[in-house]
UniProtKB/TrEMBL annotation:
Its EC number is 6.1.1.22. GO terms for molecular function: asparagine-tRNA ligase activity; ATP binding; catalytic activity, acting on a protein; nucleic acid binding; transferase activity. It is found in: Cytoplasm. It comes from Halobacillus mangrovi. The keyword Mitochondrion does not apply. Homodimer. Its main location: cytoplasm. GO terms for biological process: asparaginyl-tRNA aminoacylation. One of its GO terms (cellular component) is cytoplasm. Residues 130-430 form the Aminoacyl-transfer RNA synthetases class-II family profile domain. It catalyses: tRNA(Asn) + L-asparagine + ATP = L-asparaginyl-tRNA(Asn) + AMP + diphosphate + H(+). It comes from the Bacteria. Coiled coil: none annotated. This is Asparagine--tRNA ligase.
Amino acid sequence: MKTTISEVSKHVGEEVTIGAWLANKRSSGKIAFLQLRDGTGFMQGIVVKAEIGEEKFQEAKALTQESSLYVTGTIVEDTRSPLGFEMQVKDFELIHEAVDYPITPKEHGPEFLMDHRHLWLRSSRQHAVMKVRNEIIRATYEFFNENGYVKIDPPILTGSSAEGTTELFHTKYFDEDAYLSQSGQLYMEAAAMAFGRVFSFGPTFRAEKSKTRRHLIEFWMIEPEMAFMDHEDSLEVQEQYVSHVVQSVLNNCKIELDTLGRDVEKLEKVQAPFPRISYDEAIQLLKEKGFEDIEWGEDFGAPHETAIAESYDKPVFITNYPAEIKAFYMKPDPKRPDVVLCADLIAPEGYGEIIGGSQRIDDLELMKKRYEEHDLTGEAYKWYLQLREYGSVPHSGFGLGLERTVAWIAGVEHVRETIPFPRLLNRLYP
Ligand code: 4AD
Ligand code: MG
């Protein structure tokens, strides 16, 4: 009977066949241990000379890394392995012999591994990171579907900028100018006026010349947008959503978190509500922590975010930033118009900003004024202003960067390992 490694717990004591690749191998004179992977997981296969015969045993000893094979044997419990099961191999059939697989069990540098990303994805660590990513996506759909949100897909080719004009990827759209989407937000605002609560999940592009462990040129963003919700309501959605995602990974990715050596106690603490501090308080805190030179009105960099996060064991919201350092569409605080009703959510353990969100300006005249101040007068913006012309309502939304969230939850240092084929400042290959 054919099965997969993920299903072996249902076949204890039975003889099964699994299509697999040889991830690694060690052997002695009488016994060979095959580290098998089939895409669904990793499992050890034990080949005993006395049982399989001399000829087949020599064949097993000669198997090369990443050769593909059908392996047949009996599934038995193995309490020492993370999977909890192994196979006593009765027979195997080579499908394809891999010669000189470039990624050997020894250490390789990051550039070498990135050049071989198409193969590196097979390693147990990369496999675990992608499974965590997949669980975050699954839990995202679950959360928003259960809470009455409609999935809406904004366009990727756009005629205007959503987050400032300096980081746009320009292209031609026949005779017109077009840009790759930096954020679906403006379209999601239109969708919220049609469907109430919506969310998107798609790729976004930033032509940012940043070469840090938190920056990708192409990354995936989850962007909910909610009609009739103010800033405070939105923060509650955010903390509920992030808690749901973290708890889902803890429940459904135990083997992967173990493979990654993730300290799960830190993740277990991530339960709503999350602490909130204002930008003003954050400035004060930073001064106390030795950033004496920081002045009100400056944006925070990675070291600032890390220093603020150190004071908490949950993600922390920094709210009400100065209007001048935030996007044109954010609603000013009615009590204090020099700051806006926004928040960045900063992940613990130095992983930085994972969410940017705000209440949006719903007043037509103020939005027009912002447009002029930001020099955003093109045709493409006409439709966005019309949302404030016909039945404008208070509304809020946010964007969660998937890769930074994966990096934090999986405990991975650099975002390049959190997306299957990263696009970085100097990398478009493979
Ligand atoms: O803070 P940002 O720029 O917010 C927006 O784009 C809003 N329009 C979202 C909204 O309100 N609908 O980006 C949101 C998140 C950041 O918090 C970060 O997690 C991620 O997107 N992000 C990046 N991730 C990887 N590489 C980059 N270059 C990123 N830029 C932003
Ligand atoms: Mg931001």
